[in-house]
Design goal:
The chain is built from four helices and nine strands, in the order ββαβαβαββαβββ. It is α/β, with parallel strands linked by helices. It has one domain: Vaccinia Virus protein VP39 (Rossmann fold), CATH 3.40.50.150. The chain has a seven-stranded mixed sheet, with helices on both faces. Helix 2 links the parallel strand 3 and strand 4. The two termini are 25 Å apart.
Length: 221
């Protein structure tokens, strides 16, 4: 799996998108490059349609589900200790970084967005851990380069749920967190509990987005 050197993620973005290092609350000292709390939320003259404040870059936020799963791994390192793990739809890579901090032997972060991958590598360097970046889940590799798939805030797309189920069908352990399950779980998964977390910077989301369900295809090893 190729490992890239962290590179600027904001070379063609407006200055308000420059993330700043922030320490996450109750997360073992993990730090991420995130937008400041006072990032502009109104119209942005000259920003261009490719950078809309209505859809700010998701890799510059620590989403509530990712924060919840990262906290879970740091409190329960038995999930990842000594294992090769993949952080699917990694965004800022908070989950992959927490896995590395909790003792994972190898961490692969996966995101289709090249800026997210660059942000993930930058954040890993900020925390003094190593991760590898890829644009797609390497199901074609034999043997598979990971034993555990981690996923947070990916259930907004049905295809992602199908992918989690496919991973489980291949014998890969899956541990996930999301606020969009509406009481239902993918077939073959079990609920581990519900926790509370808020996105950073705070988006003033509806309260149900702050209630995170942790679920898994298995028990910790």
């Amino acid at each position: 799996m190729p490992t890239a050197t962290p590179e600027p993620i904001d070379s063609d973005l407006p200055g308000w998108l420059e993330p700043v290092p922030r320490t996450l609350p109750d997360c073992g000292g993990v730090r991420l490059h995130l937008l400041a709390d006072d990032y502009p939320r109104g119209p942005l003259p000259g920003a261009g349609p490719q950078v809309s404040i209505a859809a700010p870059p998701y890799w510059a936020f620590c989403w509530a589900s990712g924060l919840a799963l990262a906290r879970h791994l740091l409190r329960h390192p038995e999930w990842v200790a000594g294992r090769s793990v993949l952080d699917f739809g990694c965004g800022s890579a908070v989950v992959g970084i927490a896995a590395a901090r909790a003792g994972a032997a190898r961490v692969i972060v996966c995101d289709q967005d090249s800026r997210a991958r660059a942000a993930a590598l930058r954040n890993a360097a900020l925390n003094g851990v190593e991760v590898e970046a890829t644009h797609a889940v390497p199901f074609e590799r034999t043997p598979l380069p990971f034993e555990l798939m981690l996923a947070s805030d990916v259930c907004y797309e049905e295809d992602n749920l199908t992918l989690l189920q496919h991973a489980a069908s291949l014998g890969i352990a899956v541990l996930a967190a999301d606020s969009r399950l509406d009481g239902r779980l993918p077939t073959g998964f079990q609920r581990l509990g519900t926790v509370h977390a808020r996105t950073i910077p705070d988006l003033d989301e509806a309260e149900h987005f702050n209630r995170i369900t942790l679920f898994s295809s298995c028990s910790p090893s």
